[in-house]
Structures are given as C-alpha cells and as structure tokens.
Specification:
The protein is of the alpha+beta class and 342 residues long. Helices cover 27% and strands 33% of the residues. Bound molecules: adenosine-5'-diphosphate and magnesium ion.
C-alpha cells in the first residue's frame, strides 16, 4: 500500500513567512484528498513538493514507508511513480489523441502491442474512444482535459496530483468534469491529491478535505465531518454556507447548541460575558413567529427555494432558506434550530 505521509513539512522562499509551515498529514492509498484554501495559502507549494519539483526546507515526505524527500535529499520526480495534471493540459499539438496518451509509454519503452492496449483502455476510461485520431485543436476544453487524464492513467501512477484543473472551465463543463474525475478515481485506484480554492468542488469530489490557511493545515476530515464539525472560525467560514454569530458563551453547554440554549445566549447579550463564535447553517434557521425579530436584507431565488440574508435586531446577520416567496425589506421572525460552537 502506497501510503503518502507529509511529516512536519516546511517550505521557505527567502526571508518572509514560510509558504508552508509544519504541515503533517497522511493519505492512504486510493483516497481522494482535496487541498482546500484561499489563494496564496501554499497549496501549489505542497503539491510541488509532493511531485518533486520543490525541495522541503524542513520535514519529510514518505511514500510507501520510504522517505522520498527531506531538506537533505530528494528523489527526482520521474522516480516517484506520480503524475501531475496541469491546468494547461500540456498536450502535444502535432500528435493525435491516441499518440498523446501513448507518449509516456513510448518514452518508457513499453512494447507496441501492450502500449496500444493500454491506450485503448485509457481512452475508454475517459470516454474518448471515438476521438483517438483527432488532434488537440479539434477538441473542446473538457475533452482536452480528459486526454490529459488518460495520459496520466496509462502510466498507472500511485499518486495523481491535480492543481486547480477546472479553474479555466465554465460551470456546466466543470460539473461534467467533476463526474469524470470521480469515475477516473474509482477506476484507477490511484491516490488523488486535488488542489482547489472552491469549497463546493472539494466537497463534491473528495473523500477527505484538508483545509489550509497561511501555510498551515487547519483541519483534515471527510467532507461531511468538516461541514458538520468545523474546527475554528476560518474553516467554519470557508466550508459550506452559513453565518457566524458572536454570542455570550454559556459554560457547561455542548458544542452543538439547540434553540433554548441559543435563545438564552441572545437574552444575555448585553451583560458583558465572554463571547463565542457560533456557526449557523441556513437549513437550521426556520421562519417562525415564536422566534427572533429579523429583516430580510436579500432574497435570492434559486429555483427550489429562496436564499435569504437576514438582519437581526442586534445587527448580526443570518442566512436562511424559504420555500415561500419572501420579499426584501420584509419583517420576519426566526428560530435557530441548531448552532455549532467553533
Ligand atoms: P496557492 O497555490 O495556495 O495559491 P502557493 O503555494 O502558490 O499558494 O504560494 C504560497 C506562497 O508562497 C505565496 O505567498 C507565494 O507568493 C509564495 N511562493 C510560491 N512559489 C514561490 C517561489 N517560487 N518563490 C517565491 N515565493 C513563492
Ligand atoms: Mg496555486
């Protein structure tokens, strides 16, 4: 099993704050890890260290219990059995689709019949059987990306690295490609490490999400867990929709707070008690006469429902959904069924 381990990994460029700081995580073979974080937080640098294009300043990288990089030595990229899919696809324009996909096999001296078979399988895996003889210029953006994926599939890598591969595609194509990535992952059995700043993409694709900010790992967990139990304000704000309320901290309460506790907290707002950040998801807010007074500041029609932004009497903002039409400026009352203390 080719488990990938990053062990207290650091990367410094020059003198400023390190691009990656003391980052440790383990990815078991066959997992699909999304590295999620805002632009500039160090995602690409982590990926490039895993690939072997950058050397760690400190810490180490292990693959299948073997150290492949540390500050003293590193295994060159071509010896790591990894494949990196670039955003630009990097296809050879003068070669056909089949030739592009077969190129890594040719370089490795794989026998022609065997290479042909592998190329056919890879074409099939990305559903491009009918396009084998076309050239990249004759393909759409999504099809080119599939070719790039197929080319990486033929080498049977242990680890596939993808750096924001969908950033240049339109929304419709992104959805189609998300499905292609999931299928590709299921078929190849490879470990995938997928860099993105798009939380919806990370949640939809990955088996595990690692949230980064300012070079550090804040939390790593399956998407459902990151969504339900985010650790701290940054993760809470980055993952999923919601609003963060600042309310008096009532000692002795659980982290998952219900309406009676929240109501009690609202009542003690003026009393100078220490405060806590409470994340409230829109689906946990219902319009209900028994609740807090609020004003609808925006109502966005999403087809199935309206997505609302609400202003509470104390100036804090909430998000909610409503199936019934709601107008901007309307006064409503809301009950918060659940909140999560960050
Ligand atoms: P992300 O991919 O999350 O947007 P990067 O890993 O590209 O972030 O960059 C993290 C930080 O490291 C940024 O501040 C960036 O300017 C810096 N950085 C990245 N590569 C280099 C480099 N080759 N030389 C100097 N600074 C770099
Ligand atoms: Mg980047």
């Amino acid at each position: 099993m080719a488990t990938l381990t990053l062990n207290r990994l650091c990367k410094r460029f020059g003198t400023g704050a390190p691009a990656v700081h003391d980052l440790s995580l383990t990815v078991e073979q066959g997992r699909f890890l999304a590295l999620l974080g805002p632009s500039g937080c160090g995602k690409t640098t982590v990926l490039r260290m895993i690939a072997g294009f950058e050397q760690p300043s400190d810490g180490s990288i292990e693959l299948a219990e073997r150290t492949i990089a540390n500050a003293a030595a590193m295994l060159p990229p071509e010896k790591r059995n990894m494949a990196m899919v670039f955003q630009s696809y990097a296809l050879w324009p003068h070669m056909t689709v089949a030739e592009n996909i077969g190129y890594p096999l040719k370089v490795r001296g794989v026998a022609r019949e065997r290479a042909r078979k592998k190329v056919r399988e890879a074409l099939d895996a990305v559903r491009l059987e009918a396009f084998a003889e076309r050239r990249p210029a004759e393909l759409s953006g999504g099809q080119r990306q599939r070719v790039a994926l197929a080319r990486c599939l033929v080498t049977e890598p242990d680890v596939v690295l993808l750096d924001e591969p969908l950033a240049n595609l339109d929304r419709h194509l992104r959805q189609e490609m998300e499905e292609a990535f999931r299928e590709f992952h299921a078929r190849s059995g490879a470990t995938m490490i997928y860099v993105t700043h798009d939380q919806a993409e990370a949640m939809a694709l990955a088996t595990d999400v690692a949230v980064m900010a300012e070079g550090r790992l804040l939390q790593m967990a399956p998407p459902e867990e990151i969504y339900a139990r985010p650790e701290g304000r940054i993760v809470g704000a980055l993952v999923g929709r919601g609003a963060i309320l600042s309310l008096p901290h009532l000692p002795g309460t659980d982290r998952l707070l219900d309406w009676p506790v929240l109501q009690a907290a609202f009542r003690q707002c003026g009393e100078g008690l220490p405060r806590a950040d409470i994340l409230v998801r829109p689906q946990d807010v219902t319009l209900d006469r028994e609740g807090l007074q609020a004003v609808v500041t925006s109502a966005l029609f999403e087809g199935e429902r309206y997505a609302l932004r609400l202003l509470l009497g104390d100036g804090q903002t909430l998000r909610a959904f409503s199936r019934q039409p709601v107008r901007e400026g309307e006064a409503v009352a809301v009950v918060i069924r659940a909140g999560w203390r960050l």
